Amino acid sequence: MKARLVIFLIVLLACLFSFVDARPLKANAKKGKVKNNSKPKSGGCNPGGPFKKVIATPCGAFLNTTDKYACGVHVSSTDMAAAIATPQWVGIGAYSVSCVCFKKIKVTNIANGKSVVIAILDHKLVEDKGGLDLTTKAWNELYTPDDVHRGNLYANWDWV
Questions:
Q1: How many domains does the chain divide into?
Q2: Which of 42, 49, 50, 125 has the fewest CB atoms inside 10 Å of its own CB, making it the most exposed?
Q3: What is the DSSP string of 39-59?
């Protein structure tokens, strides 16, 4: 009986530590106020760019309105925002605030020429260079029903 209790406690602690590790650090920004929209500088923060013909997707993760995301702020589906891919996330570890947080990018849908300017407010945990997960609002501004690749769109983007 004691062995089962010990195993249960170890598993419980492991789960708790995984949640603690997965939480983003606090940032100094408040919801609704996107600061510091200059291009990332070379030196300590060099995420690269511009990016041509990357895949952008609508992100269901932005439907969660209670948690803070990797830049330390709440993001809703009505914000003009995106999550940026791992190769462009310049930070310490996957869940740390990055120098690209709150920076703005201009995204252009290659198929229809529509463009939007959005803020980077989250980290996309994949290795596709330049890839973006867009909030519903940003996606709807770029996407049209006659786009060939429903669920994905090919886009060009650069820092503004």
A1: 1
A2: 42
A3: PPPTTT------EEEEEEEE-
CB–CB of 109/153 below 8 Å?
yes
Phi–psi pair at 104, nearest 5 degrees: -105, 145
Beta strand segments in the chain, E:
51-58, 81-85, 104-109, 115-124, 132-134, 153-159
User: Residue 76: what pLDDT?
Assistant: 84
List the structure tokens of 156.
């060009």
Q: Which residues contact 138 (CB under 8 A, 6 or more apart)?
A: 79, 80, 81, 82, 107, 116, 118
Domain of 94 in residue numbering reads as 2-159
pTM: 0.66
Which one, of 49, 98, 90, lies nearest residue 73 by Cα? 98
Report the CATH number at residue 67.
2.40.40.10
